[in-house]
Amino acid sequence: MATTLSVKTSDGINWHVEQQGSGPHLILIPSGEGDCESFSKGAKILSATFTVTTFDMPGMVRSPCPPEQIQNVDAPLMAKQINGLLDELHIEKATIFGSSSGSWAAFGLAAYYPERIQSIIVHEVPLVIFPSLFELLKLDDKGIVDNCRPLFENFFNEDAAAWNGIGKEYHERLEKNYVTWIRGYAATKNPFPLTNEEMKRRPVTWTIGALNQIGVWFNNIKKAHELGIEMELLNSKHFPYVSVPEEWAEHVKKSALKYL
Fold first, then answer.
1. How far is CA 145 from the centre of its chain?
2. In this structure, which topology does domain 3-258 adopt according to CATH?
3. Is 92 an active-site residue?
4. Which single residue of 115, 150, 198, 211 could bond 111 by disulfide (Cβ 3.0 to 4.6 Å)?
5. What span, in angstroms and rounded, lies between the C-alpha atoms of 92 and 56?
6. Catalytic, out of 124, 171, 243, 255
7. What CA–CA distance (Å, rounded) separates 17 from 53?
8. In degrees rounded to 5, what are phi and psi of residue 142?
């Protein structure tokens, strides 16, 4: 069973952290909605092999923070924030998994703090922000929630039952997290300013979901090819750790152990 911690870092973030298992350190960074409960099934599987640490992102319901920590959020800022958390947790070296905007943080950690990163595992990296998300900035909070709810349930997920099955409390938190995501994370004009050289400072394992329309993440395929990284597929869309947690956990385990 996971141990829940509340950890405050020097930047004023009060992190909701969950840890379980033993072995080499594995960090799971959630995507835009910012709540680590989506990892619950996969983290439990991985805890048989790793010390698994995951957390809610700054500004989300369970990780309150000063306003400046969720303004113009980009890969360098996210990496700096999480690096501070790793310091507080006394985690000297780890493998990082990041999904969606969590992959910004994974690449950022590998680029700016390579000495503490074994390798990174990323899924569907938003190399640019979808233009439609900027349109949501024009809406009030209720409008943002009303648009994000079906976006996550039906576009980002192929298994709505699994997504909804995470639980009532989780989805109640997302009602607020969606607003933080749109106004603080998705509003950033250039969230991923890393060069090709910076993206290759540590070993990278990169996947996209096989059940997406190819155009959605085609820029990931192009960028991985440009970097000489072999793209892999998972039998999912954007949330493999929700819809196919066993397959996802096996992929993460194999990828992490390869570089230990």
1. 20
2. Rossmann fold (3.40.50)
3. no
4. 198
5. 20
6. 124
7. 7
8. -65, -40
Listed residue (56, 100, 111, 102) closest to 78, CA to CA? 102
Strand order in the sheet with 14-21: 3-8, 14-21, 51-55, 25-29, 94-99, 117-123, 204-209, 231-234
Question: No. of H helices and E strands in the chain?
Answer: 11, 8
Those residues of the chain that have pLDDT short of 50 are none
Structure tokens, 187: 């509003």
Nearest by Cα to 94 from 83, 80, 103, 78: 83
Distance from C-alpha of 217 to C-alpha of 128, rounded to nearest angstrom = 10
| The pLDDT of residue 130 | 86
CB proximity list for 67: less than 8 A, separation 6 or greater: none
Structure tokens, 241: 């750790």
Catalytic-residue membership of 238: yes
Catalytic residue among 31, 63, 100, 101: 100
pLDDT for the residue 65: 99
DSSP strand E in the chain: where?
3-8, 14-21, 25-29, 51-55, 94-99, 117-123, 204-209, 231-234
100 is catalytic: yes
- What angle in degrees, to the nearest 10, is found between the helix axes of 168-180 and 141-150? 120
State whether residue 27 is helix, strand or coil: strand
Say which of 238, 243, 251, 255 is annotated catalytic: 238
pLDDT at residue 131, rounded to an integer: 86
Taking a C-beta distance cutoff of 8 angstroms, is the pair 245, 41 a contact?
yes
Counted residue by residue, the chain has a size of 260
The SS3 call for residue 16 is strand
Measure Cα distances from 95 to 27, 44, 92, 187, 248 in Å. Answer: 6, 17, 11, 28, 15
Residue 145 is predicted with a pLDDT of 98
Alpha carbon 108 to its chain centroid, in Å, reads 12
